[in-house]
Write a structure and sequence with these properties.
Layout (H helix, E strand, L loop, with lengths): L1 E3 L2 H8 L5 E6 L5 H13 L2 E6 L19 H10 L4 E3 L3 H4 L18 H4 L3 H16 L3 E5 L3 H13 L5 E5 L19 H22 L5 H14 L3 E9 L12 E10 L2 E10 L4
Parallel strand pairs: 1-4, 2-3, 2-5, 3-4, 5-6
Antiparallel strand pairs: 7-8, 8-9
Helix pairs in contact: 6-7, 8-9
The protein binds pantoate.
Length: 279
C-alpha cells in the first residue's frame, strides 16, 4: 500500500490506473469506513482512500483541534483491507493559498445539518470537489450515516457533470443500535449507554407511521420531547421525502428521518430510511 502526501506524486501513480474507486475520509477509521472500502474493492481494480481532516467543514466553535487523529492505526487497517493507495495531504498541500473559491449550494444545504452547522456543506462540497479533481476516480463511495452529505454530493456530481459514479454504504451500528461515528469516543460510559435512545426514537416514529399515524409534525415533536426528557438537546428530528429531503407529505412513500441531538457535549446524528406502506 502506497502512502502519498503530494499531488504530483499521486497523479503520476494514478495515471496508468483505469478503474479507480475513491473513499474520502477524515481518518479515525471504524467499521463504518471499512464497509465503504469493501464496497470500493468490489467495484474497482484500484482503491484510493484519502485521510484529511478538512478545516473548511468545521465552525470556529467546533472540534477541529480535538477531532481524533490516528494515522498509523488507520494505515494498518487499510493495509489489512488491501487498499492500494492512501492520499494523506497536509493543509499546505491542499490549500497552498487560502481557498477563496467555494461551491455554492442549493437551499437544501441550509436545512437540518446546514442550519445548525452553517457553512458545513459548503466546506464538504469544496473539499470533495478538490479531491475529485485531484484523484479523478471512476467511482466514489459515501456512507448513508451522513445522509444529507450524500444527497448534496450526488447533486454536485450531477450538476457539475462529474463522470463519477456515486455509490452509498449502509450505516454500520453497534449491537445496541448506535450508529458508528468517530465522535462516539467523546461519550463517557453513562452517555454511551444513553446514546442508543436516539436510534430508538427514530424507530418509534417508523413504527407509528407503519401503524397508520400520518401527522408527521406531531411524531417529530413527540420524539423530540421524549429525548428532551432524557436530557438530550435535540437540534432536529425531521421526517422527509428521501428523494428531495423536503418535509414529507402524508402520502409520500419513500421516507427518511434525519436527526441530530446532543448528549452531554457530544452531538450525534442518525437517520433511518423507510417505506410508508400505506401509499
Ligand atoms: O464524511 C466525511 O468524513 C467528510 O465529510 C468527507 C466526505 C471526508 C469530507 O471531508
Amino acid at each position: 500500500m502506497k502512502i502519498i502526501e503530494n499531488i504530483e506524486a499521486l497523479r503520476s501513480t494514478l495515471k496508468n490506473e483505469e478503474n479507480i474507486a475513491f473513499v474520502p475520509t477524515m481518518g479515525n477509521l471504524h467499521e463504518g469506513h471499512l464497509s465503504l472500502i469493501r464496497i470500493a474493492k468490489k467495484h474497482a481494480d484500484f482503491v484510493v482512500v484519502s485521510i484529511f481532516v478538512n478545516p473548511l467543514q468545521f465552525l470556529p466553535s467546533e472540534d477541529f483541534n480535538q477531532y481524533p487523529r490516528s494515522f498509523n492505526s488507520d494505515c494498518n487497517m487499510l493495509r489489512n483491507l488491501d487498499v492500494d493507495l492512501v492520499f494523506a495531504p497536509n493543509d499546505k498541500i491542499l490549500f497552498p493559498v487560502p481557498q477563496e473559491i467555494l461551491v455554492l449550494l442549493p437551499p437544501v444545504a441550509n436545512k437540518y445539518e446546514g442550519e445548525f452547522r452553517q457553512g458545513f456543506f459548503c466546506g464538504v462540497a469544496t473539499i470533495v470537489l478538490k479531491l475529485f479533481n485531484i484523484i479523478q476516480p471512476d467511482i466514489a463511495i459515501f456512507g448513508k450515516k451522513d445522509y444529507q452529505q450524500l444527497h448534496i454530493i450526488r447533486l454536485m456530481v450531477q450538476q457539475f457533470n462529474f463522470a463519477i459514479k456515486i455509490l452509498d454504504g449502509e450505516i454500520v451500528r453497534a449491537t445496541d443500535g448506535l450508529a458508528l461515528s468517530s465522535r462516539n469516543q467523546y461519550l463517557n460510559n453513562a452517555q454511551r449507554l444513553e446514546a442508543c435512545n436516539l436510534y430508538q426514537a427514530l424507530q418509534s416514529i417508523v413504527n407509528e407511521v407503519k401503524n397508520g399515524h400520518s401527522n408527521f409534525s406531531f411524531l417529530e415533536k413527540k420524539a423530540t420531547d421524549k429525548l428532551s426528557e432524557r436530557d438530550w438537546k435535540v437540534d432536529y428530528i425531521s421526517i422527509l421525502d428521501k428523494r428531495t429531503l423536503l418535509p414529507a407529505q402524508a402520502n409520500d412513500r419513500e421516507l427518511v428521518i434525519l436527526a441530530a441531538a446532543q448528549i452531554g457535549k457530544t452531538r450525534l446524528i442518525d437517520n433511518i430510511e423507510f417505506i410508508n406502506e400505506h401509499y
